[in-house]
Amino acid sequence: MGKREAFAAVALPLALGAIWLLPFWVYLALVWIVSLAAAAELIRMRRRLEQPVPLVPSLVALGVTLPLLWWKGLALAGPLVAAVVLVLPTVYLLGRYPVPGAASAMAVSVFATVYFLVTGGAMGLLRTAVAPQLGWKIVLLHCLVVWGGDSGAYYVGRSFGRHRMAPVVSPNKTWEGFVGGTALTFFGVWFCRTVFFPELPGRLGLVLALVLAVVVPVGDLVESLFKRDAGTKDSSQIIPGHGGFLDRSDSLFFAAPVVLALFLLFGPSS
């Protein structure tokens, strides 16, 4: 068993237990921590390229706006994004950060904060905003299906991959892996609906599988684009065999706003 599998064997039961058995605020606290850690990794990658991106103000803005979004709901999303866009450049100005590279540094600061406000915010709202009694089932389905699709793409691609999907951005991604990930995604939705989520409408389950089969690898490639631009393989080395928090949250967080939208529009209400 490699480091990747050993870590998953320990972390997966803990994550599933937090989603299923513990109060919702424990899950939100975990999402908050992962969002801040992943944002910090993204900003540090840019700082290694000598961009003077303000780390602490960006993390403070994200750390404050995420709980506000979960507390007040989607009605506050627009004002929070507007506040981030206006406040962080002002903080950069008043903080007397370097003028050379200011535009790119402020752009990264705002982007990192808004990106994880949207994606991490959606991860939290999956638990609280759709149907309170079903929130844990929605989150559990989302995590299991995304992780299953990721694993299918990884192992099928490693064993049978021949045709590269995005050779410039991520040379290890293959179309064979995409097929394996798609198969595991459809199986994952069927499994979740059969085992613990009978309330999931069949048509919504089919749409979820179709959408996640595409969105999950796109999220993975977007994060690979960040790393490729920064000239690094992993966002950090904090998780044995997996890289960093950004590496492990990429597909899961990227797909969350889409899944949230589908459940808000077509999902069960109780």
Averaging pLDDT over every residue, what do you get?
89
Shape by Cα distribution: globular
Strand content: under 5%
User: End-to-end span in angstroms?
Assistant: 42 Å
Question: How many β-strand stretches?
Answer: 2
Description:
- The mean pLDDT is 89.
- The chain has helices at residues 3-20, 24-47, 55-72, 77-94, 102-128, 135-160, 175-195, 202-230, 245-266; strands spanning 164-166, 170-174.
- Helix content is 75%, strand content 3%.
- α2 (24-47) packs antiparallel against α3, α3 packs parallel to α5 (102-128) and α5 crosses α9.
- The chain has one domain.
- β1 and β2 (170-174) form a beta hairpin.
- It is globular, with a radius of gyration of 19 Å.
- With 270 residues, it is an all-alpha fold.
- A two-stranded antiparallel ribbon has the order 1-2.
Q: What is the topology?
A:
Blueprint: H1 3-20, H2 24-47, H3 55-72, H4 77-94, H5 102-128, H6 135-160, E1 164-166, E2 170-174, H7 175-195, H8 202-230, H9 245-266
Antiparallel strand pairs: 1-2
Helix pairs in contact: 2-3, 2-5, 2-9, 3-4, 3-5, 4-5, 5-6, 5-9, 6-7, 6-8, 6-9, 7-8, 8-9
